[in-house]
């Protein structure tokens, strides 16, 4: 079972979940989720003999902060220091993957491995989208301009959970309810206006030497799936896996398929038997 924690760092209170002990595995959530997207994975790595950790970044989940100048990278470094974590394996989804990349570039000696899920990259150019995807993107933009938070949440669930070209409602039940709870909370939070944007990592990713597992869902936006193929060539110790039948959040949608990949990767990094607890 996961246990909640909170850390007060200056005027910000970061909330998180943890379980287990041993080598730290730090989970960084997507921009439409919070720490809760990783609860299944935290329990899985804890059972395999690792220390699973996830926290809510500013503007997400239950973390509370004033509208002040901040950097997600500096926040991550501060959270790790507060937890007395020097080095770890970092698992990041979407914008959490971009943060993991930024951390690996700034602190290569502290990264034992990376797992990047549907990752974005700081400084990446706006992609050229095919016509069928542009239709979805235009609809998302129109709904956002309307200011109807429930409608925005519904469209976000279609795009990111179901997949942009999938039938709306493809993913249902508890997973959809959790997604809409997490994303709805984000949409209703006060906007933070003073983030220090990270430097572009687009041309530096090839400098990362840490072993890296790249995971994408085949129902995700095509440019995101293609990015994983490109990264597998740019990063010398990376390999890419596509989980069929999933979209942008395969770890949330199909933990039964994602978790074995994660545990196998951790076992490879550490030499530990992933069946030991």
Describe the structure.
- The protein is α/β, with parallel strands linked by helices.
- The chain has 2 domains: 3-127 and 191-270, Alpha/Beta hydrolase fold, catalytic domain (Rossmann fold, 3-Layer(aba) Sandwich); 131-188, no CATH class.
- 40% of the residues lie in helices and 18% in strands.
- It has 9 helices and 8 strands.
- It has an 8-stranded mixed β-sheet, sandwiched between helices.
- β3 (24-28), α1 and β4 (51-55) form a beta-alpha-beta unit.
- α1 crosses α9 (255-270), α4 (131-146) runs antiparallel to α5 and α5 (149-162) crosses α6.
- The model has no long low-confidence stretch (mean pLDDT 96).
Record the SSE blueprint.
Elements lengths: L2 E7 L2 E9 L3 E5 L10 H9 L3 E5 L16 H11 L5 E6 L1 H12 L4 E7 L13 H16 L2 H14 L10 H16 L23 E6 L4 H13 L3 E6 L6 H4 L1 H16 L7
Parallel strand pairs: 3-4, 3-5, 5-6, 6-7, 7-8
Antiparallel strand pairs: 1-2, 2-4
Helix pairs in contact: 1-9, 4-5, 5-6
Sequence stretches where pLDDT stays below 50 over 5 or more residues: none
Sequence of secondary-structure elements: EEEHEHEHEHHHEHEHH
Q: Treating each run of at least 4 consecutive H or I residues as one helix, how many helices?
A: 9
| Second-tier CATH architecture of the largest domain | 3-Layer(aba) Sandwich
Number of separate strands: 8
Structural class: alpha/beta
Tell me the radius of gyration.
18 Å
CATH class of the largest domain: Alpha Beta
CATH topology of the largest domain: Rossmann fold
User: Kindly state the mean pLDDT as a whole number?
Assistant: 96
Fourth-tier CATH superfamily name of the largest domain: Alpha/Beta hydrolase fold, catalytic domain
Helix content: 40-55%
How many structural domains are formed by the residues? Answer: 2
Sheet with most strands: strand arrangement: 1-2-4-3-5-6-7-8
The profile of the biggest β sheet is: 8 strands, mixed
Strand content: 15-25%
What would you call the shape?
globular
The span between the termini is 13 Å
